[in-house]
Amino acid sequence: MVVGLTGYTGAGKSAAAQIFRALGAYIIDADELAHRVVAPGQPTLDEICRVFGQEMLLPDGTLHRRALGSLVFADAKKRKQLEQITHPQILALTRQELQKAGGADVVLDAPVLFEVPELVKLCDKTVFVDAAQDVRLRRIMKRDGISAQEAQQRIDAQAFMEAWKAQCDLVVDNSGEWDQLEETIQNWTEVQRGRHY
Fold it and tell me: Whole-prediction pTM value?
């Protein structure tokens, strides 16, 4: 079984992934794959520089993430260009990782899951991690060391994800304690395994 895991920033998606791992799932971290495809020497990084300019490189030859982020988040067309460069590579690495799972249950931890339809097609089920907005605000401020205003901007920027939530097989409310999240995921996983085996 392949489970696609997504959710709001500050909702506790990483905590959910840890629980799935403890239950024996093979975790594929899409963020980690996204970093791998833009590593120095990768054709994807060369293509980014060709399309967006050499100023996307830091002096040490690594991607200037802040410069690229400022560019693409201010221009939807440029963001689409970046996605056309990176998403096929992330998808290819995801397929490689699925081969390594060797029959184990897989959790694809992907914040941008529904932005890449091909990733969704790889999943048997999808799980969305949610939490009350005030809880998310506190967690983001603590995690990133930022102001309430900055944290709220990040929350507001994800309003579109409400539509993703409606498409998921399970929505987990992680406003409470760890053991509540653990119990919810464990019970759901047992039900799914019963259906698959």
Answer: 0.85
